[in-house]
Amino acid sequence: MSGVRSLEGLLAAPQDVNDDDIIHVLTECARQSSNVSFREQVETSTIDDSSFLPFLTSRWLALQHLDGSSPSTIDQGVAAIDDDDDDGLSYSYTTTTSDSAATDIPSRSAFLDDSDAASTHVNVLLAMYRVLRNICASSPINQTKLKAVLPFTTNVLTGMIGYLDCSHDEELHAVIVTCMQVMLQFVANMTVHHTANQDILWPAFHPHLLEKVLVECQKYRKVLAYAAAVVLNCLHPPHAIRTTDLVKSRQIVILLLQRCLSFQSQDESDPALEWITMIFQVLVKRHYTADLYRNLSASLLSTLWSKLTPEQMLLLRMVDLVVAPDDSSSPVDGVESSRSNDDLIAFLCAEYTGLHVPNEAPSNKNDVNAAVSADRQAMWNVMETESSKLMLRILGTLTSSACVEEHSENVLTFIPVLIAQLQRLSPTHARETNAAAALSGDDVVQDETFGYRSAGVRVLGNMAHRNPSVQDALRACGGLEVLLNSCNIDPNNPMIREWALVALRHVCEGNEQNQAYIRALAPQQVVSRVDLSKMGVEPVLEHNKVTLKPL
């Protein structure tokens, strides 16, 4: 128990120990606190938040005095030792199976005169938070004993963010970033399965501090990752009102999407991407996709942007990312019934249909928002195609494991709209050009339409599976012709032939009218003489059969 006693002695009389010894003692305590036995000893000791707060407060105030700013009011109301250990994402460490805006922002000349002293104070805070992070991991008792440290920590985090741009010393800058990482790890550990701590933290963390982290720390990917871990912890239990708070926070949702999908990370593994994706995975599973999508609309801006915004397209990319199965690259012959995604399927069908409804003429010619410039219209057209394709990709994934009988009204409206778009995007060049391009091995120039038709054909096949109403609707709106004309190689639409063959099987299964309709279709011409001419033969159509004859 020497480690716990050393910690108790240090907290009782920190003024009797010099800074180097304090860091040494805390480093040793942090190392020992990675063991369950140490945490259990803390649980039964007299150590609690009142033991840590005076020590933390004195160090934070000393750091603030160095930058010459007036100390902010501190509300004293929240496992690795070296830097390599802090780089990991094991925020819930285990060895077993107030108002943040009140914190003053330091001036940009902070620490210029005494960066060594500032570095010492930050290192002491870092060492202490390593101890705090470890002793509260997987320990509900210690989580409860340290709850008053949470509001203090949110205040310090706000101040630390202000110091990021003020430190011209690379070593000091690095230790500030590391300290913020460990502090967020501590906050994350404090909120794991602890509703009371979540209730204490959430008002101080969301939305102001979270927004500040997302805006000011976007290049510090581990800081974003640990902040996302805090959010993820606060979304549990599922019925928590905090989930609704997050969904309604339009700016926070936009920042999360941008930091996740618009940031080009130099590392192959981006921790921020991993954790932010998990947040949206939870929201999608809890059926908040429609609410998120509507909250990202811009219906008051203009008729054009009311149908689609760049933020909504980012959300569709995220949904496509989180609903994608491990292997969705090959068609399947059957689909199993699942009702978990009924609402999302219906919503996407309705949004796709609405996206392709022609725009109404502006009612007021003097309304500047009503007029749409050619550049804006062109940009929106690209967004429309990309977003439509994303909707089809998502629907293709969802309908591969869910029948659509319950969505007949939405689907029957969606089917002819999709068929019209597939007809509009059908290739105008000869089929032999497609085949030759596919066999040439040359790279295909990809634009926003790449993969659109193959995604649409996949959706049609899935929806038609054992669904007579969809099968009949396809016949009525020209869908069978679209599927038949898709049974060829198209380098711009990978797997379209395979998806089309599966779709034709589904539309004919148990539907004699579709079978008769397809049988009545006769071949109209023989295509592609380019390759055969090199062999000295040509194809000839006789009695619905193709034969080869010499040239």
CA(first)-CA(last) distance: 96 Å
Percentage of residues in DSSP E strands: under 5%
By DSSP (H or I, 4+ residues per run), the number of helices equals 28
Strand order of the largest sheet: 1-2
Poorly predicted regions are 70-103, 326-330, 332-339
Keywords: Cell cycle, Cell division
Organism: Aphanomyces astaci
GO biological process, one term: cell division
Protein name: Ataxin-10 domain-containing protein
Q: Overview of this structure, please?
A:
The chain has 551 residues and is mostly helical. It has four domains: 1-234, no CATH class; 237-323, no CATH class; 374-520, no CATH class; 524-551, no CATH class. Helices cover 61% and strands 2% of the residues. The protein contains 28 helices and two strands. It has helices spanning 2-12, 19-32, 36-44, 49-66, 83-86, 115-135, 140-145, 149-164, 170-190, 195-205, 208-216, 221-234, 241-248, 250-261, 271-285, 289-295, 303-307, 310-323, 342-355, 374-399, 408-424, 431-440, 452-464, 468-476, 479-484, 496-508, 512-520, 530-533, and strands spanning 537-542, 545-550. It has a two-stranded antiparallel ribbon with strand order 1-2. Strand 1 and strand 2 (545-550) form a beta hairpin. Helix 6 packs parallel to helix 9 and helix 21 (408-424) packs parallel to helix 24. The chain starts with a helix and ends with a strand. Residues 70-103, 326-330 and 332-339 have low confidence and may be disordered.
